[in-house]
Design brief:
The protein is α+β, with helices and mostly antiparallel strands. It is built from 7 helices and 24 strands.
Length: about 450
């Protein structure tokens, strides 16, 4: 793998100064010292798989992704239900990309299946003996999601992932900002190795944030080139033409929609038209839960990133409301905040619960200043500037439990929790939706 250390250091200095300048000049909030970045190295041979992670690719398939420095290694996954016995195999595709003076390794993606639900599988990549294992998601409810925004690769990220790893979660959802590479492409490799112990065991489903853009058109560095090459999601399976927005079903009762805050979303855009078609396909009698993730929050009382999601909210909020979306998760603001059910800046029992969870462990620190006189202040029920993660356990077709776990040095304490009632179980909301359909 070729890269330029001097270029990385120069670009790193420029990016760091840029963020420092934004914090100082804005005067909106002050972040405490964040945790140090944890840089991981590849210490094995060029043929060894590294940066292994998995994602759902249909109801009974998984996509296994990894990188090798050796460009001649096969895109092959062997797997089975018994350790060391791989009775099934699949081949896939590979890609690579250039960014300034950096050239990625060979990035492999292999779709395997059909797989049995709620089952442990053992697998290896490229014929190398290193064995990995993962568990498939259940075929029916209950299911438990872990939710982390603005992850990064710092000491705080290590703490967050350790706490998540102790829970019996089935799938991880990330509403944007993964590696915080910010043009320093070797940090994407470091991030992949950093999260491998967790991302190789459970499916990680992600959408993009602003730190994934990395666009320098004048130098032929296109937006999202690293993100799209390294983290393909099941957009084609959901009828989307872009890896920046997609949807999937899980556990027989949950439809998850990942929206893109950094691609077009107005009523004439491909994303908007796709969302209309995707929502129309959801039969809430069969799939009662509807969850949405995006990066820039539509509701926010923090001084950080005020109003950055407003245009997207104006364009798309009515679609989510009319579809009776149950909960909307966002990141971007490096803090935790939970709102009541909302529609169009007012409390509404038939609107989604809005939750900001951009507190995974990013290198920029926390956003601590919440505005007392914010126009949405009366809608905010709980907020705190701490690192942590969330867990959403969908118990059955009508009830789910949400909890936010604050990071401490050794423990992950529940600081906020809520029982959610599915909106299709709310007679008033269901009647209102039916009446609207009949007009």
């Amino acid at each position: 793998m070729a890269s330029s250390s001097s270029w990385s250091l120069v670009m790193g200095g420029r990016v760091s100064l840029l963020f420092l300048g934004l914090v100082i000049c804005s005067g909106e909030f002050i972040r405490p010292p964040p945790g140090k970045i944890v840089i991981t190295q590849h210490t094995k041979s060029t043929s060894h798989p590294q940066q292994v992670h998995i994602s759902a690719a249909g109801l009974d398939h998984m996509r296994i992704s990894w990188v090798t420095d050796d460009k001649y290694m096969p895109s092959l996954v062997e797997y089975g239900k018994v350790s060391g016995k791989y009775d099934t195999s699949a081949t896939g595709e590979h890609t690579s990309y250039r960014y300034f003076f950096y050239t990625s390794g060979k990035i492999h993606h292999v779709k395997i299946g059909p797989l049995d639900p709620d089952t442990v599988y053992y697998y290896r990549c490229g014929g190398i003996d290193d064995e990995f294992t993962f568990k498939t998601t259940p075929a029916s409810l209950p299911i438990q999601f872990a939710v982390i925004g603005d992850l990064g690769q710092t000491e705080w990220t290590s703490s967050t992932l350790a706490h998540v790893g102790k829970s019996n979660y089935d799938m991880l959802l990330i509403p944007g900002d993964l590696s915080y590479a910010d043009t320093q492409q070797p940090l994407w490799d470091s991030f992949g190795r950093f999260v491998q112990p967790y991302a190789s065991k459970r499916p990680w489903m992600v959408t993009e944030g602003n730190h994934e853009v990395e666009a320098f058109p004048i130098f032929d560095c296109h937006p999202f080139v690293a993100y799209n090459a390294r983290w393909p999601m099941p957009h084609e399976e959901s009828g989307s033409t872009s890896n920046l927005y997609y949807s999937f079903d899980v556990a027989g009762g949950v439809h998850v929609i990942m929206l893109g805050s950094y691609t077009d979303y107005d009523s004439n855009s491909a994303q908007y038209k796709w969302l209309v078609a995707d929502l129309a396909k959801v039969d809430r009698r069969i799939t009662p839960w509807l969850i949405v993730l995006l990066h820039a929050p539509w509701y926010n009382t923090n001084s950080a990133h005020q109003g950055e999601g407003e245009k997207m909210r104006e364009a798309m909020e009515s679609l989510l409301y009319e579809a009776r979306v149950d909960v909307v998760f966002a990141g971007h603001v490096h803090a935790y905040e939970r709102f009541t059910r909302i529609y169009n800046n007012e409390a509404d029992p038939c609107g989604p619960v809005y939750i900001t969870i951009g507190d995974g462990g990013n290198r920029e620190g926390l956003a601590l200043e919440f505005q007392k006189n914010n126009k949405c202040g009366h809608l905010s029920l709980f907020h705190e500037g701490s690192f942590g993660h969330g867990r959403l356990k969908v118990v059955n077709g009508t009830s789910a439990h949400w909890s936010w776990h604050r990071n401490d040095d050794s423990d992950s304490n529940i600081a906020d929790e809520l029982w959610l009632e599915n909106l299709t179980a709310n007679t008033a909301c269901r009647v209102a939706a039916t009446a609207k359909d009949e007009l």
